Amino acid sequence: MVLDAYRHLADAVLNPIARRLAHVSPNTLSWAALVSAAFAGFSFLFEGGWPLVLGALFVFLNALLDALDGKVAKMTGKASRRGDFLDHVLDRYADVFMLGGIALGPYCPVWLGLLALVGVLLTSYMGTQAQAVGAGRDYGGALGRADRLVILIVAALVQAGIDPNAIRDLGLEPLRYSVLGWAMVLFAALGNLTAVQRAVATWRQLS
């Protein structure tokens, strides 16, 4: 996961914000992240520059709030298994809302959106299943959630800048997709690759 190498830079920004939010329940931040994801998915249903910009903004808010809930929980001593469970459940619903909005919107074929969702959900499943069988939670692989959210934000903004009406597809027949469509191709390919990588790593560790 590319962005893991820059986690210390993100922490320099997130830690001061987390300290200011110490009075806020971590679970509240998790729910707020889900609401942001729902608004992002709703925005992606519509064609045009402003819906894309709003979608990118709400994806950013989801990423920010999702990063802050765990930090606030640790700083305030409120970290718990229930909170960790809730965070992971809401993250999966958030993924479905955001990618589902693109899949059902004008920028991506539905079948491609479904493949992307399968890759994303299986990636998460393999990571937590590794923990369930005693191998420890696995965050490895080609594409992590932070990477995916950054790609989604950039793709939405680029789409808004160069072709908000999805008229000019990129590529050669039969592979011609919008910018957001190509982002979904990336999620489908690297998401499923990451799921396989985690499954293989867990299998080898258990053997």
What is the compact description of this entry?
By secondary structure, the chain is an all-alpha fold.
Task: Give the topology.
Blueprint: H1 7-20, H2 26-43, H3 49-75, H4 81-104, H5 110-132, H6 145-162, E1 170-172, E2 175-177, H7 179-206
Antiparallel strand pairs: 1-2
Structure description:
A two-stranded antiparallel ribbon has the order 1-2. Helix 2 (26-43) packs parallel to helix 4 and helix 5 packs parallel to helix 7 (179-206). A hairpin with a 2-residue loop joins strand 1 and strand 2 (175-177). It has a single domain, classed as Four Helix Bundle (Hemerythrin (Met), subunit A) (Up-down Bundle), CATH 1.20.120.1760. By secondary structure, the chain is mostly helical. The protein is built from seven helices and two strands. The radius of gyration is 17 Å and the shape is globular. The protein has helices spanning 7-20, 26-43, 49-75, 81-104, 110-132, 145-162, 179-206, and strands at residues 170-172, 175-177.
Radius of gyration: 17 Å
CATH architecture: Up-down Bundle
Instruction: Characterize the biggest β-sheet.
Output: 2 strands, antiparallel
**CATH class membership:** Mainly Alpha
How many angstroms does the end-to-end distance come to? Answer: 25 Å
Q: Provide the β-strand percentage band.
A: under 5%
Number of domains: 1
- Which regions have little confidence, pLDDT < 50, spanning 5+ residues? none
Helix coverage percent of residues?
A: over 70%
CATH superfamily: CDP-alcohol phosphotransferase transmembrane (TM) domain
